[in-house]
Amino acid sequence: MFKSTVALTSALVLAAVTTTVSAVSAANAASAHGTPSAGSTSSIKGKARMYFPAPGHNIWVTVDAQSEFTNSPSIPTRSWGTFRIYHGVDQPGVPANWGDFEVDCLTTGGPTATVTGRLVRTTPGGPWEQAGYLERHVRMGVSFYVAGKGAGPSRIGLSGGTPEGEPLLTRCMAPAADAPVLHGGYTLKDRRPS
């Protein structure tokens, strides 16, 4: 009886060790191939002025966003942070328009990131408030291309707000990052190890 108990205990310990080693090996192999492991995170932070094709427009995008991936390699389990879109116009009597957004999604891939969030504060009496964006907590999206050294300018893409009666922008979606960064910049940490 004692020998069979020892044999059974040894078999259970060996099975547990084998399972643990296999899981660790799989996680290490996934990391080596650039696949996010459970609990991996992404982040983007910074402030930059983007190019606008009409003179006298001063548009800045400030972001501090993070996300965590535990169940899916591409859809975050949770995202948090804020971003701000500021749009000033060099015309007397025209106030700047700005909006603060609570992040509901951050996805990343290499030198790119997409952030979406819902409007929580805006210029009092400004165009977004007048259009009902604040009342409806409209979602907007920002995309980023964070260029490495010698890879050209970083870029930003902005979605607009959706008019009443139109479907809201989907979480994690934004247009291509097409407008070059003129001043400032961003620090991006992708969920995949480089």
Structural overview:
The structure is a single chain. This protein is an alpha+beta fold and 194 residues long. It is built from 3 helices and 8 strands, in the order αβββββααβββ. It has an 8-stranded antiparallel barrel with strand order 1-2-3-4-5-6-7-8. The longest helix has 31 residues. The chain starts with a helix and ends in a 5-residue tail after the last strand. The N terminus is likely disordered.
Averaging pLDDT over every residue, what do you get?
82
Which parts are unreliable, with pLDDT below 50 for 5 consecutive residues or more? 1-37
- Helical amount among residues, as a percent range? 10-25%
| Structural class by sheet pairing and helices | alpha+beta
- Describe the sheet with the most strands: 8 strands, antiparallel, barrel
Question: What's the oligomerization state?
Answer: single chain
Compute the CA-based radius of gyration.
23 Å
How does the overall form come out from the CA principal axes? globular
Number of strands: 8
State the helix count. Answer: 3
Topology pattern, helix = H, strand = E? HEEEEEHHEEE
Question: Biggest sheet, strands in spatial order?
Answer: 1-2-3-4-5-6-7-8
What is the terminal-to-terminal distance?
A: 54 Å
- Report the portion of residues in β strands: 35-45%
